[in-house]
Inverse folding.
């Protein structure tokens, strides 16, 4: 099953974008491709909050909109709640 999930992850990245950025205030998210990282906005178009696209501790990009800890270094990215509900990883 690991190979199938790896394949699906790579296919999704080819179509939707390599990485994810999310708003620390409202949770709005967008996917971005490596070649277009400089086009990721610093502020959220929805609420004006900070868009986080890389870990502040190690500079690693995020692969999931549900990340609350950095996959690379384990640093906390945000609280595990949004609008009073836990952020669930599928």
């Amino acid at each position: 099953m690991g190979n199938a999930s790896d394949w699906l992850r790579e296919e999704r990245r080819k179509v939707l974008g390599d990485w994810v950025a999310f708003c620390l205030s409202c949770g709005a998210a967008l996917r971005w491709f490596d070649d277009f990282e400089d086009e990721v906005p610093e502020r959220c178009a929805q609420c004006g909050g900070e868009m986080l696209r890389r870990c502040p501790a190690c500079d690693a990009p995020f692969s999931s909109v549900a990340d609350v800890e950095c996959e690379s270094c384990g640093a906390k990215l945000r609280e595990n709640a949004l609008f009073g509900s836990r952020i669930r990883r599928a």
User: Anything to note?
Assistant: The helical segments are 2-16.
